[in-house]
Amino acid sequence: MSSDRINYLVRRYATNRATSEEVEELFAWLRLRADDKDLHDELEKMAAATIPDNNYDPAYWEPFIDKALKGKREVKRRDVRNIYTLNRGWRRYAAAAAILLLISTAIIWVLSNNKRSEETLVREHRQSTNDVLPGRERAILTLANGEAIKLDTALGAIVKQDNLSIVNRNGMLDYEGKANTEQYHTLSTPNGGQYRLRLPDGTDVWLNAASSITYPVGFVGAERRVTVKGEAYFEVAKDTRKPFRVDIDKQSTVEVLGTHFNINSYADDGNIKTTLLEGSIKVTSRDKQVVIKPGQQAVSAAVSGPEGPGLTVIDSGIDLVQVMAWKNGLFNFEQANLKTVMAQLGRWYDIEIKYEGNIPDRTFRGKITRDLNLSQVISILEDVEVKFRIEGRTLVVMP
């Protein structure tokens, strides 16, 4: 089973959303490792690497692991409930969350510039009658003839063209077979949506909320070229005969042969950020080009100035975990200001953000899963002396 699938199953299980089939799948995988004599050592190393000062209590998590590996159903979701509602013994509970991803955490520790720098925040999450559900896997496929197909309702083989079959299943759109045409399709996600796409050449693309990708149903020319808006993560299938190129909202172009990279071109961010995780890519913005290596980020202006957008390379201090948090089902608010945090919430929960009075000067730090209701998220964020009010699909920020 792939690590992505394990991540998905664990998040579903720990947040009380797993179907009976998903629970069975997770426990079946756990039972396969029941006789792994190195498992506990592996778990301890993971916990030690995650929890500061190695300050955890094995008495808390070992019984859970033992029962889970034996497939005993008395280990119910209540045993891992509300891990994000930590008490002051947070290290003990957070250790459990680090255990081979067996417990999906929604831990967030939030720091402001004028607050205690190491204090653990304690708050029971609240359920509100006026609440907003998190985003989910939904998207629209627009065909070459203009027909729009909602993928959250159309399942299976939704389009067949000659030797090409377009299949929609499990939050993923897959182009199976070959097409000798350059007809273009567009996959777009709304606010509150995300989706995965497998292109005809085998390249995998993950789309974040409020994003789109336009691509041919068959790469029949000398290159593979697609166009992206918003945010997308690529794992490009290698083909040295056909370079893979990504046009970013008519501002920049990324050229690759086979690699993993993330593109963030949200207009409200002000910059286009291309971050490389593996391989090598060339980024072009107007008449300027740079080649970046893994761990580096190319940054250009999202809106051209009179002399065209600038293009710079950041070669140190790039937090790849933060860049990829959205794909892994997390918000990562490390050193993020209030407007940045609110922009992420606005896209994922499909809500409007309004401010009453001046925008508070706050800096956030920490991680939280993206499968919580809005009220649960803001109940945690309020610990930095910022107050919120939900009015329908509007989140009001108050100083």
Structural notes for this entry:
- The protein has 399 residues and is α+β, with helices and mostly antiparallel strands.
- The protein has three domains: 3-97, no CATH class; 136-322, Jelly Rolls; 328-398, Phage tail protein beta-alpha-beta fold.
- It contains eight helices and 27 strands.
- The strands form five sheets. Strands 1, 4, 5, 6, 8, 9, 12, 15, 16, 19 and 20 form an eleven-stranded mixed sheet that branches. Strands 3-2-7-10-11-13-14-17-18 form a nine-stranded mixed sheet, with no helix packed on it. A three-stranded mixed sheet has the order 23-27-26, with helices on one face.
- A hairpin with a 2-residue loop joins β26 and β27.
- α1 (3-14) crosses α2.
- Residues 46-61 and 71-128 have low confidence and may be disordered.
Q: Which oligomeric state applies?
A: single chain
The number of distinct helices, counting runs of at least 4 residues, comes to 8
Radius of gyration from CA coordinates: 22 Å
What structural class do you assign from the helix and strand content?
alpha+beta
Report the top-level CATH class of the largest domain.
Mainly Beta
The backbone outline, from C-alpha atoms, is: globular
Q: Please give the largest β-sheet.
A: 11 strands, mixed
Please mark out the parts with pLDDT under 50 across 5 or more consecutive residues, or reply none. 46-61, 71-128
Under CATH, the topology of the largest domain can be stated as: Jelly Rolls
* Number of structural units classed as domains: 3
Strand coverage percent: 25-35%
Mean pLDDT, to the nearest integer, reads 76
The tally of beta strands, per DSSP, is 27
Helix content: 10-25%
Distance between the termini: 47 Å
The appropriate CATH architecture of the largest domain is Sandwich
